[in-house]
Write a structure and sequence with these properties.
Layout: H1 13-36, H2 45-64, H3 70-79, H4 87-118, H5 129-139, H6 157-170, E1 175-176, E2 182-184, H7 185-188, E3 221-223, H8 229-237, E4 242-251, E5 263-273, H9 278-293, E6 299-306, E7 309-318, E8 327-328, E9 331-332, E10 341-350, H10 352-356, E11 369-376, H11 377-385, H12 398-401
Helix pairs in contact: 1-2, 1-4, 2-4, 3-4, 6-11
The structure holds 3,4-dihydroxyphenylalanine.
3,4-dihydroxyphenylalanine (DAH) binds at residues 226, 228, 268, 306, 309, 346-348, 372-374.
Length: 405
Amino acid sequence: MAYTVPKLTDYSAAALERASAELLAALEQDVRKLLFDDSKRTLSHDAEWKLRWEEWKNFRDKWIARKSGVLTQINDVWLKGAPKEGKRAAGQLVNELRKKVEEEVARSEGTLANWEADDQRASPGQSFASMDDALRALQSVDISLPGIRRPIGAEHPVIKTRNEIVGVFERLGYSVAEGPVVETDYYNFEALNFPPNHPARDTQDTLFIAGQQSKPQRERLLLRTHTSPVQIRTMEKMRPPIRIVIPGTVHRNDPPDASHSPMFHQIEGLAVDTNITFGDLKGTLDHAMKALFGSSVRTHFRPSFFPFTEPSAELYVTCFICGGSGKRGSDPCRPCKQTGWIEVLGCGMVDPNVFEFVKDNGYDPKNVSGFAFGMGVDRLALLKYGVDDIQLFFQGDVRFLQQFG
Ligand code: DAH
């Protein structure tokens, strides 16, 4: 990006240092371009040096031309525009920068002149050894330039929440499994007991890959609507007993708003063994919620429906914003809609019809039973951090993300 001299409103030492670092970084970039651009080496000696000197003159004028060079601009904008208290510091800075810029202009001129004098190429494009050496020497670091400050990254709040949840289950002995985001109709729907054309499919509308009409329905590709297909994929590969969690991104045909996004994150869980009961499901999830939200949280299961579990339930936890009272002082508590309970996931006992699809790998529903659950990570992250718009998670605005660093 082209460098333009910014207006300064803040004359603190930190702000001046920042402005100076930006200017010097732009200067360094220009010098590098001037000296290290090898693309002209295929030209004849004369053509190459004509071009190089034109570039150098442009560079010189950009930085030190009397009328509107960068030095003149910082003098006008930074120094003359400074408030009384800032004049001294701004004056010092402008002087230092002038020295540095003039040095670089003179130095680059000298370097180019030496190279030109040395350049005895017989024909265009011929490599010239001493110029290569000089380039290499110059490409080593100039330790007199200030370092470029690179901010340290931080975990995204959704990824942080995902890792915490996965961690809770890992400590219970669960392993992590993953599967493809572009999935077949068979794994996303059919093997999870959503028969073709069944109305339950309407609850999970998605994006289909185009141009597949010639394929049988079960082979058609779509963006997975949940992480549940990885239950089947894992059971095809691993014999029971299994205990797995499956983090991943999923897609739905939902227009974006404060609580919906066409792409979001889920974590799926699956435990299959002999004699797994609904009591195991309750105990496991109660423990997980306490580990995530604090030991005073209580859990509550309500009957629900999913094609791939029977019975099915929704899990609620006591609202960790209002502590279950439904009120914040005299105001109604918004996250739990004044009920004192927040829905966090869907779960249930694996439907025997699902086991039928993987029966041959040891999952005969006569011998094994299991539970499964699936939760939305983004929603939990919203609740956990008190964020009121899911879109903030996906806009990549550094001012938002920095708050989690
Ligand atoms: N796949 C369900 C959804 O996306 C969530 C779910 C519910 C997953 C119940 C499960 C389960 O494994 O048992 O809405």
